[in-house]
Amino acid sequence: MIEPIRVLFVCLGNICRSATAEAVMLKLIEDQGLSGQIEVDSAGTSGYHAGDRADERMRKHGKGRGYQLNSISRQLRYPEDFETFDYLIAMDNANFSDMEDLDQEGRYQDKLYKMAEFSESVSFQEVPDPYYGGPEGFEHVIDILEDSCSVLLNTIVQEHHLS
Hints:
4 strands, 39% helix, globular
């Protein structure tokens, strides 16, 4: 049996952006019949919210768009996550820098990406943290993640010849 492609989404606390990216990607994978070929998880660079469910506001906005944010927050693990996952995708530049700092020897640099690298129709440099904002911030994050997760999935399918 072929090993699945593994994707890890990373933000600061793993209760808003990366948890939502995980939910969006899981739905896209399921909708395209790729379950079992691609595995998805999420983590935070900090352990502030380890063991917590996704932010209640994010769960509400996600549910309104058909996503189930069921993941439990956890902290990024080095080197385990860097070895296990094929793609480690940071939501913003600070998260990306934190991952680079963990990988001081540069052994896993070819696995590190920024979510903005997978944008197609939405222009952004970073996925903004909606935690301290209003409802529009959560909706904006979902807009960004729907676009970029779709591009990411297409990239993975093409690069790994999945069907």
